[in-house]
Amino acid sequence: MSLSALIVMDEFADRHVVETSLRANPSVVRHSFTAGGTEAARRLLARERFDMVFVDLDLDGCPQLLSELRGDAQYSALPFVGMSHNTDEEQVERLLSSGLDAFLSKPLKRDVVRAEIEEIAGLRSGQSALQTRPV
Description:
CATH topology: Rossmann fold
CATH class: Alpha Beta
Number of helices: 5
Structural class: alpha/beta
Number of domains: 1
Shape: globular
């Protein structure tokens, strides 16, 4: 299996955690693209096919981007993993009900990100179902 990921975030430390977690198993994730903002993400989504998207919800415009993409049938089955410093339980529940498949709290931990990648990879191969839950 070989998946492709889009990372929409500008914060170096958390982006690095996601990127290194994706590279940790090259047989699962063949390549990833990083967009430092929503416009770059839109351009990448228009020209590439992705199997998963990691979205920094603290980045300006990302909640709106998520909403737009969830409303587009082309992206309806695409797993979206949101990340934020805001871990208020009510806010997380709202985010999950608005179209996120999973939520990761910042600062990100490599083992938690890897587990989420493995969960998505299992979903794509038909081995498991992605559960909507905060991590």
